[in-house]
């Protein structure tokens, strides 16, 4: 059973070695790896930028009543929680 577990990895290593013996194949593999790496990094940076909620950050509209009400209620939550914790 041990021989069977070693056969496939050894076969894959042999095929990879035979494939990479030619310089053209090594260059192609290196370029492909760099291309894939840049695509992955691009996707990660795009997804990180899309997750940031900065559409209205720091620019409150004084005429947006609902937004101002939400901010007002949110700011009082911590005060109410603190008062409740201290009093109890």
Tell me what the structure shows:
It is a single chain. This protein is mainly α. The chain folds into 2 domains: 1-52, no CATH class; 57-88. The protein has 3 helices and no strands. The chain has helices at residues 2-20, 23-50, 65-87. The N and C termini lie far apart (68 Å).
Fold blueprint:
Layout: H1 2-20, H2 23-50, H3 65-87
Distance between the termini: 68 Å
**Can you give the mean pLDDT?**
76
Please, what is the oligomeric state? single chain
Number of strands: 0
Q: SSE string, helix = H, strand = E?
A: HHH
Individual helix count: 3
- Our estimate of the beta-strand percent is under 5%
Anisotropy-based shape: elongated
What percent of residues adopt helix (DSSP H or I)? over 70%
Task: Return the domain count.
Answer: 2
Which regions have little confidence, pLDDT < 50, spanning 5+ residues? none
Integer-rounded radius of gyration: 29 Å
What is shown here, in short?
With 88 residues, this protein is mostly helical.
Jot down its keywords.
single chain, 88 residues, mainly alpha, 2 domains, 3 helices, elongated
């Amino acid at each position: 059973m041990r021989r069977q577990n070693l056969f496939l990895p050894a076969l894959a290593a042999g095929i990879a070695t035979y494939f990479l013996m030619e310089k053209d194949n090594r260059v192609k593999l290196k370029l492909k790896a760099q291309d894939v790496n840049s695509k992955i990094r691009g996707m990660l940076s795009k997804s990180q930028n899309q997750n940031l909620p900065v559409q209205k950050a720091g620019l409150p509209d004084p005429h947006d009543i609902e937004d101002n009400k939400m901010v007002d209620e949110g700011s009082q939550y911590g005060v109410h929680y603190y008062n409740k914790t201290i009093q109890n």
